[in-house]
Amino acid sequence: MPEDGGKKRRLLFSRKQLCIPYGVFLVLFVIFPLLLICYYAFTDKGTGAFTFGNFIRFFSDTTAITTLLISLLIALVTTVLCILIAYPVAYILSRMRASKSYILVMLFVMPMWINFVLRAMALRELLDLVGLLGRSDFLNYVNSVIGMVYDFLPFMVLPLYSTLIKMDRSLEEAAADLGASRARVFLKVTLPLSVPGIVSGAMMVFLPVMSCYVVTDTFGARMVMIIGKLIENQFAEGGNWNFGSAIALIMLLIMFITMLLTGGFKEEKIRGSAL
Predict the structure, then answer these.
(1) Which of 103, 142, 146, 275 gives the lowest tally of CB atoms within 10 Å of its CB?
(2) So what's the pLDDT on residue 70?
(3) Three-state secondary structure string covering the chain
């Protein structure tokens, strides 16, 4: 028996020892692959010499730049649509009784348990039944966006619901007592306080969509090229790991900048709402 019952029992392993497996995993599957990508990105395919040629090639290639812009546009449209659809859903769920809202939230979560490709193929069959597949290049892009929204909508609903349900209702009640209309309460109180959920959901949607070429291949009849598909082509078909690694680093840089901007925006909004 321990001498002092108030003292915690000594753990079999220390905290540092418990972190070792995670550290090994981080080194093997995150840091090492990233270093390998950096090596290929800054070396020439033929000679192996240090070069910026892969990056120069990307920014001088009209097709690559167009693909990047299309990827950003699809990601932006998908994110906006997810916000417009998910916000009313999350708002209604947060106003319901907990027993009912939890069940409905589970209905949104359950599709995430199904394989990503299977969900995409199921929706593709539905679009094919109504004759929307392969009609035109424009419809290929529209179908790709529909597929993205369908697959990533739960990633927007959950952060919004989590933020709205934790919101202090007394702030809304105080604004209403001071004579503010429901619309004004929503615009001046509810919406600003829910910005962290919007930003978190937007990051969980915008960043993956840029590289999710499985959806564009499924719904766009392999005619919609996004940056993820361009990278895959360089590694799998073109055999140019150097150029593919350079594109991957550019994409990582874009994602990092996006995270910094959205993180700063969220911090500013939180301070503003607190004031």
Answers:
(1) 275
(2) 94
(3) CCCCCCCCCCCCCCHHHHHHHHHHHHHHHHHHHHHHHHHHHCECCCCCCECCHHHHHHHHCHHHHHHHHHHHHHHHHHHHHHHHHHHHHHHHHHHCCHHHHHHHHHHHHHHHHCCHHHHHHHHHHHHHHCCCCCCCHHHHHHHHHHHHHHHHHHHHHHHHHHHHHCCCHHHHHHHHHCCCCHHHHHHHHHHHHCHHHHHHHHHHHHHHHCCCHHHHHHHCCCCCCCHHHHHHHHHHHCCCHHHHHHHHHHHHHHHHHHHHHHHHHHHHHHHHHHC
CA dist 112 and 129 (Å) reads: 24
Assigned token pair, 265: 């925006």
Tokens 């991957």, residue?
Answer: 248
Looking at residue 39, its pLDDT comes to 96
- Segments in the chain below pLDDT 70: 1-11, 221, 264-275
H or E element in which residue 166 lies? none
d(CA 266, CA 164): 15
Class (C level, CATH) for 62-274: mainly alpha
- Rounded Cα gap, residues 97 and 100, in angstroms: 5
Burial-class residue 86 by CB neighbours within 10 Å (0-12, 13-18, 19+): buried
Phi-psi region of 49 (alpha: psi -120 to 50; beta: other; left: phi over 0): beta
**Residue 198 CB coordination number (10 Å):** 23
Provide the token pair at 111: 């599709």
> pTM for the full model?
0.85
Enumerate helices (H) and strands (E) in the chain, giving the number of each: 14, 0
Task: Return the domain boundaries, the chain.
Answer: 62-274
